[in-house]
Amino acid sequence: MTFSKTGLVAVSLAALVASGCSTSRFSSMDDQQPAPLEAAPAGKVTGNQLPPPASPGTTDPSQFPTAPANTQVASLPPDGAAPAGASDVTAASVAGVWNVSVSGQSCKVATPQTKFGAGFRAGPLHCPAPIDGIKSWNVAGKQLTLYDESGGALARLYSSGGSKFDGQTSNGQPISLTR
């Protein structure tokens, strides 16, 4: 009996194909199912009534600490010019969280360097009017300006050295920012 090379290859391939179809390597996986997962623990959900929202522009002065009696705020020149000794202000020097004092009431204002409108976003934290309406801030030369939602100036401040700004709100109230 003589086999040709082509015949031998054909028989070998047929044997390989037939043996590959009958393998049992993967048959054991078909019978295995993953174990079911346990349910996540469920806690008890409770509900409480929220207090009614405060009307815009109204605050309860009793919830804000008052500034110390010896706090002094520098007054601005009546023509809006920078006070003597005011230094140039940069956005990096303003970015952060400030303690704000407005006419004896205290709060905080966050001033991140997140672009917003013509300046940067601002976030008042439990501030009295008009500072509760701050939405953005920007610097120009020696002046820091705080803006409302429509882009109107709420306050103009100047550096008083170190980490302090003093100025006035648009309605003439003294305002001070410190860290």
Automatic annotation (TrEMBL):
GO terms for molecular function: endopeptidase inhibitor activity. Residues 56-73 have a biased composition (Polar residues). It is found in: Cell outer membrane. Pfam families: Inh. Keywords: Cell outer membrane, Lipoprotein, Membrane, Palmitate, Signal. GO terms for cellular component: cell outer membrane. Residues 89-179 form the Alkaline proteinase inhibitor/ Outer membrane lipoprotein Omp19 domain. Residues 24-88, 160-179 are annotated as: Disordered. Residues 1-20 form the signal peptide. It is a lipid-anchor. The keyword Repressor does not apply. Residues 74-88 have a biased composition (Low complexity). Belongs to the rhizobiaceae omp19 lipoprotein family. This is Protease inhibitor Inh. It comes from Rhizobium loti (Mesorhizobium loti). The lineage of its organism: Bacteria, Pseudomonadati, Pseudomonadota, Alphaproteobacteria, Hyphomicrobiales.
